[in-house]
Structure formats: C-alpha cells, structure tokens
Specification:
Blueprint lengths: L1 H6 L5 H9 L20 E4 L2 E3 L2 H10 L7 E5 L5 H7 L4 E6 L2 H13 L5 E5 L12 E6 L8 H6 E11 L5 E8 L5 E9 L13
Parallel strand pairs: 3-4, 3-6, 4-5, 6-7
Antiparallel strand pairs: 1-2, 7-8, 8-9
Bound molecules: S-adenosyl-L-homocysteine (SAH).
S-adenosyl-L-homocysteine (SAH) binds next to strand 2, helix 4 and strand 4.
C-alpha cells in the first residue's frame, strides 16, 4: 500500500506511515473485506462508500498537518479518513448526517482504540462553531461549492480540502486562508465522491 501510494506521488512520510498503519479491512462489511487494500471506494451501507486510499492520502497530504492541529472532517462514513487523521494531528472532530453510520463509526473507533476523534451527528455543511476555528478542514462528500460556514470556521493560515463541482464529477480543491484572511484556491485532482447533502450542499 505504502509503495503504491508513493508511486502515485504521495510524498509526506507521516501520511504514508499513517496509511500503512490503518487496518482498512476492519472498516468494511464482511463481504468486501477481501478487497480492502484495492485503490477503490467500496460500499459501507446506507448508499455510502469508504473513500479510496489514494484519495485519503492526497487529501491528508494537502492538509499539511504537523501534529498539533484540530481538524474538522465533514462526512465521517466508515471513519477511515478520520482514523488516518488521528495519526497526523491532535484532535479530529468529524460530522456525519446519517445516524446509523455515525453509530457504526463510533463503534469502530472504540474497537480500534482511537481516542482523539469525536463523532458528531448533524449537517456538516454548517460546520461546528463550538470547536472552531479549525487549523484544517476536510470535506469527504462532493458539494457544489465549498460551504461558506466552513470557510468562516477555518483559522487564518488554515487549509480546507474537499471535492467541489457538479454531482457527477468534482475537482478536489485545496483552499488556503492566509494570515490576512484571504482565500487562495488550488486544484489537486479530478475525483468523484458521494453527494454532500445539507443546507450548503445538495438537497436531500
Ligand atoms: N470519510 C469517509 C467517506 C464517507 S462517504 C470515509 O473515509 O469512509 C461521505 C459521507 O458523508 C457519507 O457517510 C455521507 O452520509 C456523509 N455526508 C453527506 N453529506 C453530509 C453532511 N452534510 N454532513 C455530514 N455528513 C455528510
């Protein structure tokens, strides 16, 4: 896995190590466990998917984490991205809109002994002001645009990474907020995520 990710251009040592450590098979329904180490999104129930390892690696690398950060994730799903982040920063706040998946994610985090990830239930497009500002934010479902509340809750000097654009094909963007609060955007890759559904996403 690590060698394949490196071959695809992932350079950040800590990101490669984190991806190498997380047991993706433990986050999948039994029927898909044997495919856990393929570079593919796979079904996790409720019409949702676990993200592909290369997308998780690219997103994580773009967040440029050093270890001390508080990171917000929108779209907990299987908790795969959240667990990778748990190795790279101090604290992860992750939001999931579907109760069954939030419950499943909490169970997975407990079973794996991950202690620095808090799962919240709700519409992540509104962010979570209680814990803001965030040093980094990752959105793991595809929305039309970067939700304005998330850009508000991003710290100066922070990075937001997420897939934005039409429902069938998005572009993974990295948006950086500089010290004066100005936003700068950069495209990382073309991608296709499940829909971001909420007030600042698509309608249910
Ligand atoms: N990060 C996950 C990816 C899961 S797919 C992983 O690594 O496996 C995206 C998830 O986003 C789905 O579980 C979906 O229910 C959730 N989602 C979609 N819109 C959302 C919203 N507005 N707020 C929170 N979660 C949302």
């Amino acid at each position: 896995m690590v060698a394949q990710l490196a071959a695809r251009g992932v350079r950040d040592r800590r990101v490669l190590e984190a991806l190498g450590q997380v047991e993706r098979h433990r986050l999948l329904p039994e029927a898909f466990e044997h495919r856990a180490y393929e570079f593919q999104a796979l079904p996790i129930g409720e019409g949702q998917t676990i993200s592909s390892p290369d997308i998780v690696a690219l997103s994580s690398e773009a967040l440029a984490l050093r270890g001390h950060e508080t990171v917000l994730e929108v779209g907990t799903g299987s908790a795969y991205q959240a667990i990778v982040l748990s190795h790279l920063c101090a604290r992860v706040i992750t939001i999931e809109r579907l109760p069954a998946l939030a419950r499943q994610a909490r169970q997975a985090l407990d079973a794996l002994g991950v202690r620095n990830v808090a799962v919240c239930l709700g519409d992540g497009t509104r962010g979570r002001v209680e814990y803001a500002p965030y040093d980094a934010i990752v959105v793991t479902a595809g929305g039309p645009v970067a939700p304005p509340p998330l850009l508000d809750q991003l710290a100066r000097g922070g990075r937001l990474v997420g897939p934005f654009g039409p429902m069938q094909a998005q572009r993974l963007l990295r948006i950086e907020k500089d010290a004066s609060g100005q936003l700068q955007e950069q495209a990382i890759a073309d991608c296709r995520f499940v829909a971001l559904i909420g007030e600042y996403g698509w309608q249910a």
